[in-house]
Every structure is written in C-alpha cells, then in structure tokens.
Amino acid sequence: MRRGLILLGVLCGFVCGAEAQRLPGNVKTEAYELTFTPNLEKATFGGEELIRVKLEKATKTITLNAAEVEFQELSVTAGGTKQKGEVSLDAAKEMATLTVGKEMPAGPAEIRIKYTGILNDKLRGFYLSETRKRRYAVTQFEPTDARRAFPSFDEPAYKATFAISLVIDKGDTAISNGTIVSDTPGPGEGKHTLKFSPTPKISTYLVAMMVGDFVCREGAADNIPVRVCAVPEKAELTGFALEAAQDILKYYDKYYSVKYPFKKLDVIAFPDFAAGAMENVAAITYRETLLIIDDKTASVDAHQAVADVLAHEMAHQWFGDLVTMKWWDDIWLNEGFATWMAWKPVEAHKPEWHEEQQEIQQTGGALSNDAIASVRAIRANADTPGEIQALFDGVAYGKAASVLRMVEAYAGPDVFQKGVNAYLEKHAYGNATAEDFWNQLTATSGKPVDKIMKTFTEQSGAPYVTVQSACGGGKTQVTLTQERYFADAAKMKEGSKEIWQIPVSLRRAGSKEVTQKLLTEKKQTFELPGCAAWVYANASGRGYFRSGYDAATLAKMSEEIETSFTPEERIHFLGDVWTQQRIGRLGIGDYLAVLEKMKGERSRAVVAVMMGRLGEIHDQIASAEDRPKFEAWVRDFLNPIATELGDKPVAGEPEERRGMRADVFATLAQVGRDPKLLARSREVAEQYMKDANSVEAAMAGNALAISALQGDADLYAKYLDRMKAAKAPEEYYAYFGALGSFSRPELVKRTFEFALGPDVKSQDLFVIFGPIGNPPTQEMGWELFKQNFPAILKKMDAANTVTLAGVAGFFCDAKERDDAQQFFAAQKLQGSERILRNAKDTVNACIELRGLQQRNLTGYLNR
Ligand SMILES: [Zn+2]
C-alpha cells in the first residue's frame, strides 16, 4: 500500500495494553467461493459464502473474523454431516464464533454463510465511492477490513483461493482479482452475474472488487493483458499510466526469476480512496490524482508520481502478493522492499528523471525521521487493528527501503538480486518472515547480511559515525566512531549504548576508488593506501548513517564538493553537514558556507536539497530581526541560477530543467520574498486561470499557492470556480491545495468550513493542515482545528484518524507544544501514544535547534 497521508511515524506496540486479537489457529483455509449482490442505492449488499477449511482437530467451534455484517444463515458440513450453526459475535475483537451441536471430526469442513453488510462511507472494507453523476462500490481491505465484506480468516497467513461472483445492474461492469469467465443474465430483473476465475492462493487483504461503469484502456506486456481503468469522465487521461505499467511489467519480468504470477493486470482509479494506492492481486487500486494525468500538459512531477507509485504497487505483485509476510510485524519488509524496488524500473525507463539521486534524498528523509528520540524500531509487535494500522509509517517505508539500499550496495546488486529471487522461488504462493529473507541473502552473498539487518531492524534510530583520518608512513589511518544520532543535541551529549554493524564505503580525496569495510565496534581504525587530505565514509551515499568531520576537514571537503563528489554524494554530504549543525558540532554559518560553494550546481535533486532547509531556517531559526537579512541572503544565493534558467520554459529543454525552474521560483518567492517573483506569481496564476494549457503545470501549482498567501476573497472565489471546472486531477489539486495557503483570517475560516462541507471528500481533508503548517496562520489554524475536531473526526476515514495526532508536531514553541499534547491526550485516539511522543520530541528538537543556532545565524548574516 502507498499511504496517502503520512504524518509522523508511530507505533503503539506493547504500551497500549490491548489484548491479543489473533485467531486461535485451529483451522487451515483452502478456498472461498463468494457471491456479492451490492445495492448501490441503499448502500447495502448481500453475501453468500462457502469456505473450505481443514480442521486441525475435532471441535464444536470455529472462530473467524467478521465486522459490521449480519449473519442470516449458517451451516457447517464436516465428516459427511451437515449441521446448522449458531453465531456469537465479539464486536470489540471483530470476531465471530460458529458453534454446532455435535463435534466435528478433524479434516475437511465446509462453512456456508448467508449474510448482509453495508456499503459504508468510511473508505474501508466494501464501500461507496461517488462522483457527481453516480455511485460506485469498491474495496480497500488492507490491513484488516476484508472482514467487513465477508466473514473470513482475515490474517495474512490464512492464504486461500478466491472464486468471486458479482450480481450487478445490467448497465454496470465489475473488476476483481480474476478474469471474467462468464456473464449471465439475472438473477432478478435488470441484473447480470459476472463470475471471475479463481485466484491462486492469496491472503484476504489482497482480495478486491469494484462495481460501476468503469472504462478501461487496454494493452499488454509479455503476453499479460494490462488495463488502466477509470470513471468515464476521466477515461481519456489513462494513456500515460498504461504505457508506464507495460514498461514496468517488462522490467520486473526480467528482474524477477518468476514471471508476473497472475493472469492479467488491472489498474483502477476511483474518486474516493484513503491510501495512495493498493497492490491487490492483479487489481491495483488508486487515488485518481496518482494515476490520471493529461500526458500533454502534466508536470514532470505528476508523470513521475504516476510511474513511481505504479512501480511500487507492481513490485508488490511479487513481493507481498506472491510471497506474503506471516504477520503484520513484518509489514516493513513488504513496504520497504516495494519502496526500494520502485526506483529501478523507472530509472531504467526514464534515466533523465535521475531517480538514483532521489533515492539518496529518500535515505536523507528517513535519517531525519529516525533522529527523533522516541522513534520506533523497524521491527515492532502489533496485534489490534489500530496497532497494525499504525505500522504503516515512515519507518516501514522510507527507513526500511534505505536499509535495503545499503545492504544491496554491500552485497552487490547482482548478488542481492539472486538472493531476492531465491527467496521468492522458495516461498511462492506462501508466507515468509524477515528472517527467511535475510538468511537467504546471507547464504547467497556469503556476507553477514543477517547480522547487519538485525542491528538495523531491532534497534531504534540510526548511527552517526565520526570520521577522523590521519596520514603516516604513506598511508591513511581512518578512525570511525559510532553513536546514535539524535536530533536533540543534549541527548547526543548523554551518549548511547547502541552498536550497529555498518557497511561503510571509504573514498579518499583525489581518488575514485572505494574501499568497503564493515564497522562492527564502537570505534575502529582502518588503513587506506596513500596520504589523503580527507576520507568520505559514505561514498555513493547509499549507507544508512550520518557521518561527521571536524571543521578543518569539512572546509577541505567543501572546497572540492563540486569537483570530486557525485550528485548522490553531494546530496548525502549536505545532509551530513546539516546534521552536524543540528547537534551543535558546527554553526549554521558553516552549513550556509557549504551551500555557497555549490553555486554552480545544476542537478535538480541536489538543488532541491540545497533549498530544502531554507524554509526551516527562515521560519524556525531566524529571529524576527534577522528574517529580512536571511531573505536577502536567499535572493543573492538563488538569483544567479534563476536568471540562468529564465522564467519561461524553453522549447526542447530537458524535463529536469523545467522542474528545477519551478522549484527555484517557489523558494525565491516563498523564502526569499522576492517582490518581483511575488508579482510574477500573480501573473502566472492569472494566466493559468485563463488558460491552463498556456502555463507549465509545475509553475502553476506554485504560483497559485504563492498568490494565495496575499490573496483576497475574490481570488479565493476564482480558485473555487476554476477548481470545479478542472478536468485533470493535477489541475484540480493545484487550486484545491492552494486554498490552504490563503492567510486572511476570514479565508482561513472558510477553508475549514469548505473542507468539512459536502463538496470535499474525506480523503482530501488534508487541506486543513495548510493553515496549521504555515507560520502566519498557525495560531488561527490550530484554534479552528480544535474547535472543529468532532466534525473532523466524523468526516475522516476511520483508518486515518490516529494520524491526526501528528498535528501536535507542527509547532516550534513550548506553549503550543503543551497545548497540543494536552488536547490530543484528552481525545484518546486509539494507538496515538507513540505519535504524540514523537510529536513532542520533534517540537523539542526544533526549539533546541533555534536555541543553538539563532545567534550563529545572526553572526553569519552580519559577517
Ligand atoms: Zn506498498
């Protein structure tokens, strides 16, 4: 799954004290036959179900999962005897126990259930999705909501085959995991029945079905039929997604030794979807904005998002769907793998997008998240649905992917690929654990991958490696010391016990040669040939750690940053320097001085990283008196590149340059407060409103948001109008997202009213975070958030409510921190304890950073 809205990483784990909520484990599932009759108008459905199971021992009871369904009829056939059964429900545990009069013998049994359920509006289970024209019935089951569509053994280890039939209105069609094997009229007036081919053995959370008037664009790759489907109004905008899906499938067929394991691939977008996308077997579902784009006018970022998310969900067809984790505590391996893998096919197909550089940005983001003192370890226990849901966080995605990236570089890409394939072949159509995965890699590579993985998955946080090099006898001695990296400088001073096994890649000044070593102790010295002025410990930037250097060495390294570092290394190195000032081992001026050495930089990803901290410095570190001076520094720093790029696209220029122009333009306007660009933003916004095709899409989104900052009610009304008329999701969300940037009090209020009204889908509630995240409107946004909290909670899809507590981390001030902590503690959102602790640590680290560096910044700006 790809999360639509990730706030802060969280886990409840043991601390919630929730009871275990696992099935007793006395049956094995074989096959489900399911017939659904949805009634879209009444928002209900009827279900008929046959489950073939094997009883492990003689029993009178069978316990399975069920929620929000009403049992009508129930019987169990075992040992040649059919018996009617009674049902007792445990709503809190979402379980149903079926009891029969006479004991059933061990061996095969058939459970038959007739039941009814509701098509809910909470974006989980079997639910309703709506356009202005009509309703659709669709599903989202991961992690624990298949039980809302059919009583089931709803845990990933209970794999079975699924034969699904859907009884639907005559004019409608349906899509599911299988292919349509028959289409017959009835039962009943105006209905037809679609029967789908049974799936191979899969987990319940990967079952999917959608009912409506979807229109599909058809293609194929490697003899597998591929379709991209959408509601009819959006069907013409699926061309790029189809092309990308075909290319990605062909790439994976080469990477994996097992060819695409299902009969067809459908990719379907619909209007209401809580996550970003979901890897259901052969029926990947999507939020429209991540799939549907106008190929001619969409920005490079929109194109890239479509390809990246497709590559993620398609990677899961093997890793997750073909081989599935035994339990949710290994969801990180599933999500980390798909996140790590997704860059590969896109990089191969679109080298000009430089995904290899963005991978290193992802590692940097994960390291920042991991610097929070209360961050969870990758491996964590989870039993209840709330705890399981909380595992889908930045740790499971970004950190797990980054650790895999490091291990791949350490084992060697070819060896790593062999290990992955051996693992998939061994566990195909079954379940496996993380140990199965890394033991295989250890065996294939002959290197201690298992030991490395254990230290990175079982300990919280990430390592910080201090690098000291000295020259003697024509050789360089490199001494590495590891400690845990905390964003909070005081915590770093306290010291830490953790020891990681860290693959380090040492590269000396003036050399391209990389020496790989494994740092296994707190402090170790390695020897390199020749005398070097400096040694960088993370050559290629793929190591999951931060490294630090003394000021003199750093000065030498930054002199050579443009000449002897690759773009990936520059990205990682800048993060290292930022970290050093974050923990008080350098001044913020040292960081800005390194940026000033990089004025010739023209790789988009590197420039993005160079600009990435400027907003934070402006909003959170600079004093009110220093802000105008810092704004002037930003203008001086960025104007040369802005002038070189020009403010209009040039025919035939690389896509990277277009994206970079939009990025630089936005930073100059938002952080540099460049009056010329503020005025230019308004011009671009006006032009875009007149004719969306006349403006580069990436520029338009930024221009709309920047204009909104000082926009009045007239502009607000114009945005609403244009938004309603927008055809492509990118255009719609350019206006929609900008609503959160208006800063006049009456307009901030209006954004809340609008978001909570009927015209905004619950998946899009994120717009209210805009005013809270924006310093000028933060106070008012937070007050409105508190006042409207009951309505927000009611509107939000149930699965995401816990993430609301992440708002407590938006502040950089003790008073607001305490207020937010108190507010959320009183709400008692299930599973929110860890989120709140993370949020508190984040705010504290921000306050501390200001304390450490505000005066240094003054000094640097007045130098
Ligand atoms: Zn995923």
Sum this structure up briefly:
The protein has 863 residues and is of the alpha+beta class. It contains 29 helices and 29 strands.
What does this entry look like structurally?
The protein contains 29 helices and 29 strands. The strands form eight sheets. An eight-stranded mixed β-sheet has the order 5-4-8-2-1-11-14-13, with no helix packed on it. A five-stranded mixed β-sheet has the order 16-17-18-20-19, with helices on one face. By secondary structure, the chain is an alpha+beta fold. The longest helix is centred in the last third of the chain and has 29 residues, at 833-861. 41% of the residues lie in helices and 22% in strands. Mean pLDDT is 94; it is low at 4-19. Zinc ion (ZN) binds next to α2 and α3.
Backbone CA Rg: 28 Å
Helix content: 40-55%
- In DSSP terms (H or I, runs of 4 or more residues), the helix count works out at 29
Question: What is the count of β-strands?
Answer: 29
Q: What kind of sheet is the major sheet?
A: 8 strands, mixed
The structure class reads: alpha+beta
Strand order of the largest sheet: 5-4-8-2-1-11-14-13
**Low-confidence stretches at least 5 residues in length (pLDDT < 50)?**
4-19
In this entry the ligands are: zinc ion
Mean of pLDDT = 94
Shape: globular
